[in-house]
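Hi V.,

You were right to ask for the full record rather than a summary. Here it is.
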Amino acid sequence: MFVAAEMKDVIRVTPENFHHSLKHSITTLLNRKLANKVVLNVGLCIALYDITHIGHSYTFPGDGSSHTEVKFKYIVFRPLVEEILIGKIRSCSREGVHVTLGFFDDILIPVNALQHPSRFDETDQAWVWEYPKEDGEKHDLFMDAGEPIRFRVTSEVFEESLPTGPPGSERPVHTIAPYKLTAAINEPGLGLLTWWETAAQGDDDDNNDDQDNE
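Predicted structure:
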């Protein structure tokens, strides 16, 4: 889920930061620049892990700042495709189930990746797994907001988006998520944790009954 990505950048340290050590200034500026930002084809940046190389610092005419090429490792969130994660349901829509990890919200379980058969309940705004019972009846299992859910990552998409302009500018606001995950729960063991905890409890009760009968 988390990896240490090797990256490099040129860091501009302004004169007001010269009283700090160069490494301290670079660390502060890297975290300020990257933390909680998505880097295209890299992932969601979390925190600086290590600075592996600090090059020579240069100044340029008309600019009193120093410019230093830095190589570093940054902890990023980028789960593997097929990796299984646990999050919470953020909301449901006709598009599918929207999941959050707390620090990352752009996860969608589309309709075709839900347990089958499922239906969307307009009143509760929740997807419902119509779980078939042995007697042929169906038991409704609601996927309510806030419930813990186990899912498998099936794909990822990076979107290159333009920065928005300052308040009052004519530049349109872009709401496209720069990094999105698609997931699935349509296999045994995936879905709401309570589904399988209940099933396991039922199996234990059946085993205890069998032992009592013996």
